[in-house]
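User: Fold this; tokens only.

Assistant: Input:
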Amino acid sequence: MLFIPAFLICLSCDDQFAAESHLGSTDRIICAEISPLFSENQVDDANDNRIDDIQAYLFDEGVFVKAYNGVKRTERKYEFQFEALSGNLYIVANVSLLPDFQSPAPGLSESQWQETLIHAASGTAESVYTGVISLSDYTASDHIIPVSLKRVAARFDLRIAVAGSAEVKNITFKQVLTEAYLFPQSEVVSPENSPATDIVLAPEQPYTGSESGILYLYEQQNPGLKVALNASIDGKEYSLETDLPKKISRNTVYSITLRKDVIDADVQLTVEEWKDGGDTTLKPGIDDRLTIDSTLTQLPPYATIVQEGTRLILPHLATDFIVAIKSDSELEVFPVADPSLSIEPVSPTELKNKTATSLARINLFRIRKKLYSPNMRTVDLKVYFHRKGLNNSYPEDHIQVSMTGNPTTSEGILNFGIDTYTHDFNRYIDNEFGVFTLPAEKEMLVEFAEEEDPWIRIDNESGSNTWRVLGGWRPNDPTANGRRQSATLVIRNKADHSDREEYTVIRRNYGLPVTFLHGVWWCKYNAIKNSKSFDDQILSSADPAAQANKTLFQYLTDCTPDEYYKLWGWAYQGNSGQGMQVIEKDSVIVLERFTRDEKVHINKLPPTTLSPDGYELPSMEEFNRLFDATDYIWMMYNGTHILRNPWNGHSTVKRQQLRKNGIQVGAMTISNLIYIALSSPDFPEHEPLVWYGPAAQWNDTGILHSGHYNNILFGVYSPTGEGWYMNGGMGNLYMTKNGASSHDTRILRFKKSDVEYIY
């Protein structure tokens, strides 16, 4: 599966704090800071930092790969998603201000892209910013990637330095080139044959003082560029003109100064380049590198400090300790994106036993790391700090932390994470949950609460470092009512039982009443209502026969007709699992919602399609262990029959049948409903398997056939569509192999799926 990290662009490195709290543990922060513009009087134009949109364009191996358009903007943050850390990423801000701008076309070379032109018909530049990142310079452990967004334009300020009063009525910039390169070239250069124009600034009210950002021009190489102005100084009119620099550089402030220092002095018009904003974000003028003081740090077991104090290696076990970091500055820590690690400043209470001398140039932080569960791998990250008192934060102010992966690995369906260390199936499940491979010095065991059954077993071959975790099943469990069943898996050192890791496994404990016959744990009751739902079935915790201390055959004999009807009157079509109840319709006994249009044959479905978890339809071979006899099986009589193919040497099946009468169905009363107990003389400890249920329906005449309601069609797992059917009249009711058609209704009697561990 491809993982796509998120890149978050912040318009200031001061926003790193909020950005890191927004991201996940593998996300990256592109810290895009607008290069500052400086002027002598530190007057800044608020529009300089306004960004309304950001686009990014990825080139790899010299060819355009992908455009990242319409990125999400939240205040000053812009989020991109990338598939890889390779290639060059070109960032263009406020591209919407360029009406003739076009994104790179498929196949465009990077060199062609670098020569992209932008146009300003009026000559006035737009507030567009560009930056480029070489993604291959960074690794997966770099969480902050700095980039400078540099203005494509230069800014012109007006300064009035006059001894007296002055008004500048208009300013004209002459021969301004209207085309420029979007990205910086190797030197300041303009496109050949770029058109030129004059720009006239005529404010409604004359300029009477210094003004920042009176005009923005694109970078240009232009020997003919001039500026002229008309001004009034102490009531006297002046017209002045001077050359502008031949090279107007992007991201640079130029100041046009009208100067008249004293009375009778000459009036001067000068142009001065103040400062280039630069190509990178500002760096602190601080030489000390953040390192961990090993003498003041009390490391937990298995933790180490390496690489001259710049890297901390933590074990997979949970840790909680105080780390001492050397720095001349007071440090503030950024939140760590990885949820398994937290770093917080030490509270004043924890500092009270420290002396002032011992804490000189020391910052103390509490590190808490959660236990890494099996299969969690080593994670390397950088923890970033901010030097209090500085406006910006810097990527080099960090320590590296390696959180060692758990040496135990596992295969299977158990996953414990780092929060609750719990795997809750929230359903019934059994058999193999997982196979764990432990280091040679470790062992694994399972623990239960005082009242809990030992429903999990751990198997380990002597001398092996693999441990199998098995979920078990208890036949006819009186507590299997859907309750939450819990167990604790423990991994620890063999020698002294130290370094204990605990993981919780939870399932819903459901069970259906069963009896054993010829190698199969048959369910005692037919499915009713929603056959897939435990909550609709007769559970072993609420088995009416067991609660009456009777076998099911005895219970059906003694129960009321209404109780019998509730168990007896259900059959199924198709793959929905929604039971069809026997009802009376126009004086005919039918199954509700019966349709002749059903195309799905129950017997051909996978055996677990219609059953609750842990149960399934018995196969044709398993039904043959009951009915595939050497002669006719006359179901209307008591007796025995001999199997054609004995199961493990057991061939005799004993039959006992009775009838139930007086069953009220709507306005009709039906009788002579047969129920038949099958048992083996070789397994007297198990109660008989009892068959009952309504006859099949295959047309609109209902379930009455040959004058009775006992022609039962059995749901049988058979990919070829085979099955068993109770055929004939009440004088010749016999078993025959017949899978019938897909629209014929049939009863569902499940079996317990094979389970390795029975407790």
